[in-house]
Amino acid sequence: MSDVIVNDRAAVIDPPSRRNTLHQPRLPRWAPPALAAGSVAVACGIGLAAGLSSRIQWGLIAALLFLLGTYALAARVEGRRQAKDRLATSLVWVCFLLAIIPLASLLWETARRGVKVLDVNFLTHSMAGTQSILPGGGVYHAIIGTLEQVGIATVIAAPIGLLTAIYLVEYGRGKLAKAVTFFVDVMTGIPSIVAGLFILSLWIIVLDFGYSGFAGSMALALLMMPVVVRSTEEMLKLVPGELREASLALGVPKWRTILKVVLPTSIGGIATGVMLAIARIAGETAPLVLLVFGSPSINNNPFSGAQSSLPFYIFEQWAAGNDASYDRAWAAALVLIAFVMILNLVARGIARWKAPKTGR
């Protein structure tokens, strides 16, 4: 008898109608993928029926159908509030796909065309004695030039950018810090051709030095410095102030706190920022056209004479305007992409090796 009374009281306190309203209807997990597949199928049908030849148009129609279908289906099943949330999530995924598809297409096209002539002979020979209209030749001299020019630019720009960021974050106060910040912002937006013209007028015309890989490296360093400063500055700001205060409370000088606490804590982000700066300058062509020119033979001395590089080699071969030079240009572009990817992997390895250990 008592069990019946308890059950009756539970039914009064929490009636079945109220218990059912606590469980919000949800779309099944397979609904978004199925809706995406249906949107693609409908978009293909619309594209074929309307005679649209561009696959990009098909993709945009599919994205629009997916967004509209997601909102309509979620509003009917889950309510308008949850439908708005799903619409925002779907919009993020659509934007991500719209951003990644051109990148994947670019990598695929470069790899497909570049592998035609990319072999050991291409990587170990220069263009000396090879006519541009004939197959053969290689990119070895351009690889040497790029390694030397980017390396010198990194040696110049990375320490200056790092020290500038340390000054702005740790010491910078007053008008000098504001002036440095202003000029860093200005340098971030200057075109690469302007950096090349500056080095041309100062180094070659005024100081009367010759065209060389070092002149191109100085122009690349001007483009690299603001990127290093900005990325390093943001990474240093992410270091908790408690770490600095704990080190200073132990009587450690500020310069040693920066060297032993702040920099090791942010070394991963700093290395990534330097790699982003290197990736930015590795493909620059305009300053090299003004300051370095190009050479079909190997020049191991960056301080004297014309010297080729991968961006200039690609420009030179594409300008030749024949099938053999086009193949060499695509292969050199593939080498340049691989060069940047390898540098990125090396930077991540160094960052992981130098990162502070959190375990005991």
Would you summarize the structure shown here?
The chain is mostly helical. The chain is built from 15 helices and no strands.
How does this model look, in words?
There is one protein chain. The chain is an all-alpha fold and 360 residues long. It has 15 helices and no strands. The longest helix is centred in the N-terminal third of the chain and has 35 residues, at 80-114. The radius of gyration is 30 Å and the shape is flat.
Number of helices: 15
Total count of strands: 0
What is the N-to-C succession of helices and strands? HHHHHHHHHHHHHHH
What percent of residues adopt helix (DSSP H or I)?
over 70%
Q: What's the shape?
A: flat
Q: Alpha-carbon distance between the termini? A: 62 Å
Provide the low-confidence segments as ranges: 1-14, 16-20
The largest pleated sheet is described as:
none
Rg over CA atoms: 30 Å
Strand content: under 5%
Chart the SSEs and their pairings.
Blueprint: H1 2-13, H2 16-21, H3 31-50, H4 55-77, H5 80-114, H6 120-124, H7 140-171, H8 174-188, H9 192-206, H10 213-237, H11 241-249, H12 254-282, H13 286-291, H14 310-320, H15 323-354
Features:
360 residues, mainly alpha
